[in-house]
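quick q for whoever's on today - can somebody do inverse folding on this one?? i tried earlier but teh output was garbage lol. tokens:
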């Protein structure tokens, strides 16, 4: 088995990005694409004729192990100078994650993309390849949990517009004014 390279995406070889910002200490990420269906029924039949799509939703969750600005002073490798609270998440679109959970900034908030990458070694060079992407996300909720023997973990729920993976890119169903870049 020597020399075999991993083919599965695992927590050990995954990299999570939100708005092109790598989330250090991301603990759990989950997402789901849901297609809402309506059964079409007719007289004289007990079974439905067809199930027709009427909606498409993408939702998910991510958990972050929270640290503060003193983590870097204490020698924590990879720690950001100001900690990793949502006020420090500067998205490449120009927004800051705190705008999604601060009532005074909600109208100014900008969407962001969630990306999951698989890291791998390519002849001594670490590379990453996109595995899945949720486009145009907004946070729906933020919470946290800590216990006497544990660490603070902040949980975020989000909703997106489209969900892609490495085998296809989702496309909008109609109006061209909704097209994503």
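ok took a stab at it. sequence:
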């Amino acid at each position: 088995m020597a020399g075999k390279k991993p083919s599965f995406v695992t927590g050990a070889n995954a990299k999570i990005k939100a708005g092109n910002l790598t989330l250090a200490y991301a603990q759990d990420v989950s997402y789901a694409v849901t297609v809402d269906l309506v059964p079409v029924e007719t007289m004289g039949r007990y079974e439905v004729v067809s199930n027709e799509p009427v909606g498409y939703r993408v939702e998910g969750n991510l958990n972050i192990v929270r640290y503060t600005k003193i983590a870097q002073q204490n020698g924590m490798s990879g720690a950001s100078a100001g900690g990793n609270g949502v006020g420090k998440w500067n998205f490449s679109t120009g927004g800051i994650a705190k705008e999604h959970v601060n009532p005074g900034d909600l109208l100014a908030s900008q969407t962001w993309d969630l990306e999951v990458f698989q890291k791998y070694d390519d002849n001594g060079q670490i590379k990453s390849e996109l595995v899945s992407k949720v486009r145009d996300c907004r946070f729906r909720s933020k919470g946290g949990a800590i216990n006497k023997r544990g660490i603070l973990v902040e949980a975020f729920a989000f909703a997106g517009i489209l969900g892609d993976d490495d085998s296809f890119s989702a496309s909008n169903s109609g109006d061209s004014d909704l097209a994503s870049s």
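fwiw Residues 112 and 125 are 29 Å apart (CA to CA). also The chain has a mean pLDDT of 88. so keep that in mind when u check it
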